[in-house]
Amino acid sequence: MSTETSNKGGIFVGHPHSKGGIPLIVEETGQKIEVEGEEPLIPSEIDADSKIYELEGTNIEILDEINKMFGAKGMAKAATEIHAGDMVVCKRSAGDDTKRKYKGTLKQIVSAVNQSGGCNEIEKGAVEYRDGKQIQYKDGGAIGVLSISEVEHKLGRKLHWWNDDVVEINGAKFKKVFLKSEYKRV
Question: Where are the alpha helices (DSSP H) in 34-166?
Fold first, then answer.
């Protein structure tokens, strides 16, 4: 088991958003975020794997399998830390007990799991098979990180560096990441 990922992953234990949630600080960026109990945490290391997978099961079973592939905590263990690039899956999607089959990169599959409960897209391209029919996820917003071109597209205009440190897209605020060509949700 990798010491780099062995403390990552798991599922958050604590209050829902309606009762204050679980306040956290992303270690590498200092960004303050709030998650809620029963939200799974997927480590950023899955991003490095470009292989196409086909995974089947309930959403929580699939997320558990993905985390364990990278030596991270499964869904039976509490999430205790969050890092830049990690993905938090909404509780509504994670708790859906419908058996599904997904095909795509691991990040695309995590995104499809998140979207299955009506939550935001993380990365385009996953395919879900439901009742023997293929469903291609297409539209949606990013949960955590948007490239500059994605921000400009969603705003319908070019960004102005002196004026666009923080932008609002569909009611969510995104802040420019220092020395990177991306915006992170705040």
Answer: 59-69, 91-94, 106-116, 148-155
Residue type, 140: G
Instruction: Give the tens place of pLDDT for each residue, 45-95.
Output: 998 888 999 999 999 999 999 999 989 999 999 998 888 889 999 999 999
pLDDT at 29: 81
pTM over 0.85: no
The closest alpha carbon to 137, from 118, 155, 156, 154, belongs to 118
| Largest CA-CA distance found in the chain, in angstroms, rounded | 51
**Residue 27 identity (one-letter amino acid):** E
- Residue 56 DSSP SS3: strand
Among 132, 92, 135, smallest CA distance to 112 is for 135
